[in-house]
Amino acid sequence: MTLIRRFLSTALAASLITFATAADGKLSIATVDMQELFKQYYKTNEAQKQLSVDFARIQKDVNERKAKIRDLNTSFESLKKQIDDPSINDSKRQSLSKDAQVQYQDLIALDRECREFEQRRRQALEEKKNQRMRGIFEEIRKLVEEQAKVDNYDYVFDKSGISQNGVPFILYTKDATDITAGLLKDLNKDAPAGSLPTDEDTKIDLTKPTPAGDDTKDSGKDIKDSKDKKDSGKDIKDTKDTKDKKDSGKDKKGSK
Question: What one-character-per-residue DSSP string does 179-196 give?
């Protein structure tokens, strides 16, 4: 059905163009590179710079949370080593076990909070980026439409458009005027000093998903995975249980 609809749409468009050509003698056609207008528009550059600032702020906040998790994990591992030390007495081991269990729960809570925080902030940034991108594209589209009406073009085709198969929609146009340069000049005529994009600019591409942070793939290294944490908690509990059994054995022996 999809192929049929595409064929009918193409056939209808061809029929309309043929009809218009027959009625008026010749069509007035222009082309425009919408991607080039978008990339070279000073407002796009400003939006990209602001998004880079917002992204860096998110990454800073996430890294601070992960640093706290690493510090707590170091303390937790230190407690585990002390608990395993055979030279300490049972009272000290029991006290250390309680402290370790508290830190173990804190680690789980902090890790969950950090992941949820990062997900929320990145999702909000992605939505902000998409909204800004749509606004810029709409602004450019309106300018193209106004220019087409002024110059009395019958059709204006986006030559940067790509089909689902990766093939450009416009393969060839005869006697078509490219109005990209003139439109870009109009778009940037009121650009503040230093706002035009340069090749050296470091920015987030508004047409792509917001990149993940450098530490995202290593976040699992900050603390043990859920299995390790579960086993750690079990080890601590086993240590206490062993002590309780030992004490129980003493009680039985004493009763005898």
Answer: -HHHHHHHHTTTPPTT-S
SS3 assignment, position 77: helix
Give me the pLDDT at residue 233, please.
52
Tokens of 216: 């995202």
Contact 125, 55 (CB under 8 A): yes
Q: Is 173 contained in some domain?
A: no
Work out the mean pLDDT of the chain and round it to a whole number: 78
> What is the number of structural domains in the chain?
1
Query: What is the pTM (predicted TM-score) of this model?
Result: 0.66
Asked whether residue 21 is domain-assigned, the answer is: no
Domain that holds residue 225: 34-157+213-255
Specify which residues 148 forms β-bridges with: none
Rounded Cα–Cα distance for residues 222 and 159 (Å): 48
Q: What is the pLDDT of residues 65-92, one digit of tens each?
A: 999 999 999 999 999 999 999 999 999 9
Longest Cα separation, the chain:
117
Q: Is the pLDDT of residue 94 over 70?
A: yes
Query: Is 146 a member of any domain?
Result: yes
Strand order in the sheet with 155-158: 155-158, 29-32, 177-178
